[in-house]
Amino acid sequence: MPQTGAIILAAGLSKRMGHDKLNLPFGLNYSFLSNILAGFHTFGSSPVVVVVNPLSEPQARTISTGTGGATVVVVNDAPEKGRFRSLQLGLREIGSDFPVFIQNVDNPFVDAVLLQQMLHAAPDGDFVVPVFNSKGGHPVLLNTVVTLQIIRCSEPSTALNSFLKAYRKVTVPATDSRILLNINTPEDYRDFLRLST
To answer: What are the structural domain ranges in the chain?
Structure first.
């Protein structure tokens, strides 16, 4: 299987949730972050990078030590500048020599079958997006052309969706609506728990 990396974006301050989303329980034995890390490690992505804010760094390092694979924790010391800067920091750690999956910590689901389908579709475009009911979800797979240009971008407040409009998109049909979830509030989390039981 071709090499892939993965970046988990977890540098937000979680103001709507009220506490770090990366440590939210996911089932009996996992947190959101540990479940995502385990999924990408099992799939074979390496390196896997987690981008966090300074307050979340100790938790992220603790969680990442028990997930069965090597994880690099990168600190975004200015998370208020947005997700694109976090993505740049993660990609500068990984480099631009192979495709990279991008996953938000507030979507804690990793499906190896979907990842493989996305990787299979990658040669047809510059980035791959899974789609459910005509809506794009997560993760997103970026090829080396896109990752290099993100690293070189001089404007860290760029919106990723706007940035990607200049590149060729490939979509992959997904059978699981959870690719669309963004668990940002206590209400979202309660809904997630109801769906999971």
So the answer is: 5-196
Residues, the chain, total? 197
Q: What angle do CA 57, 24, 9 make, to 5 degrees?
A: 50
List residues bridging with 85 in a β-sheet.
Answer: none
Which residues make Cβ contacts (< 8 Å) with residue 149, sequence separation at least 6?
A: 163
Amino acid residing at 64: S
The CATH fold assigned to 5-196 is Spore Coat Polysaccharide Biosynthesis Protein SpsA; Chain A (3.90.550)
Q: Cα(48)–Cα(41) distance, rounded to whole angstroms?
A: 8
Distance CA 63, CA 83 (A): 21
The two counts, helices (H) then strands (E), for the chain are 7, 10
Name the nearest CA neighbour of 135 among 188, 108, 161, 171.
Answer: 171
- Could you list the pLDDT tens digit for every one of the 197 residues in the chain? 789 999 999 998 766 665 678 988 887 789 999 999 999 999 999 999 999 999 999 999 999 987 667 899 999 999 888 899 999 999 999 999 999 999 999 999 999 999 999 999 999 999 999 999 999 999 999 999 999 999 999 988 889 999 999 999 999 999 999 999 888 888 888 887 876 65
**DSSP per residue, 115-130:** HHHHHHHGGGSSEEEE
- β-pair type (127-132, 135-136): antiparallel
